Amino acid sequence: MSGTQPVDGETHAHDGTEDRVVDALLRDPATAGSIERIARHLDEARSVLFVTGAGLSADSGLPTYRGSGGLYEEADTEDGVPIEEALSGWMLGRRPEVCWKHIARIESACRGARPNRGHEVIAAIGERIERTWVLTQNVDGLHRAAGSRHVIEIHGNVYALRCTRCPEKSRVPSYAHLQIPPYCARCGALVRPEVVLFGEMLPPAAVERLERELARGFDVVFSIGTSSLFPYIAAPVVAARAAGRPAIEINPEPTAVSAYVSERLRARAAPALEAIWRAWTLGASPS
Ligand SMILES: [Zn+2]
Q1: From ligand 1's centre to the CA of 181, what distance in Å?
Q2: What distance in angstroms lies between residue 158's CA and the mean position of ligand 1's atoms?
Q3: What is residue 79's predicted lDDT score, i.e. its pLDDT?
């Protein structure tokens, strides 16, 4: 038991977990058996893939994009177009100020966010199981910040910027001092973040790396905090099951892959990962 007690909402937002939630997961017969089996899978695993989405970063206080309390709960933006159009490659080309305003809003929601216990547990598992990979849809960079080394940011990273004309690239710690939209200091053309906008292709290097690692296969696949609507996000889970390997889902809600997984924890990411960590490393059921 870590002994840390949440004192207010702030503590939850940064840590993403509380002892009483973790204890409940380890005690509740509906989840305890599942967590124990997951711990035994990790005992035997020599490779693990974590597929992650907005639900993991939500425990760091980041809003999800859709759904209640989401960044884009409304059907249309104030610019009179759906968010999918505002955040599209087409809009970046035609009306960069509109596209960039919404990109900056996403960055503003990420700003100051720190990795939560879920990110930390994933990084710590990566220290013990050498071939651990993370496939994330999150553009907030929190997996690397937590210390994960093998991360495929399939939708890019909001802090990586590049010129739309010349080879100029940069990384910024935040957009705090960025003029929106930003223009290239070298050639004056529009600068864009290295994120995948709606209607754009996935980054070829990331796709290649993903395909290479999937071809090698994984002993265990986790799907965490994602509705798995994109085929390339659902595919590793489906492939694991087809190969007779365990696939584990952590999500409070049912998703597109719920029917395929071998273990399903209906819980938030950070406390569920902490519970798995304790069961694996301490063999701990709470006394
Ligand atoms: Zn340039």
Answers
A1: 14
A2: 18
A3: 82
Given this model, what pLDDT does residue 75 score?
65
Residue 120 in tokens: 């930390």
CA dihedral 68, 59, 232, 51 (to 10 degrees): -150
Q: Domains of the chain: which residue ranges?
A: 11-21+28-62+115-155+202-281, 83-111+161-195
The domain covering 11-21+28-62+115-155+202-281 belongs, at the CATH homologous superfamily level, to: TPP-binding domain (3.40.50.1220)
CATH of domain 83-111+161-195: 3.30.1600.10
Q: Please report, as a single letter, which amino acid is at residue 197.
A: L
Cα-flanking dihedrals φ and ψ of residue 15, to 5°? -95, -30
What is the pairing mode between strands 156-163 and 191-195? antiparallel
Q: Which has more confidence, 284 or 185? A: 185
Amino acid at position 196, single letter: V
CA separation for the pair 24, 197 (Å, rounded)? 40
| One-letter amino acid for residue 103 of the chain | I
Is residue 10 predicted with pLDDT exceeding 80?
no
Catalytic residue among 14, 102, 155, 177: 155
CA of 162 to the centre of ligand 1 (A): 8
Residue closest to 119 by CA, chosen among 22, 46, 16, 193: 16
Q: Which two tokens stand for residue 224?
A: 């965490």
Q: CA–CA separation, 255 vs 231, rounded Å? A: 13
Distance 144 CA to ligand 1 centre (A): 27
pLDDT digits (tens, 9 = 90+) for 116-147: 999 999 999 999 999 999 999 999 999 999 99
Indicate if the pLDDT at residue 213 is higher than 60: yes
Active-site annotation holds for 102: no
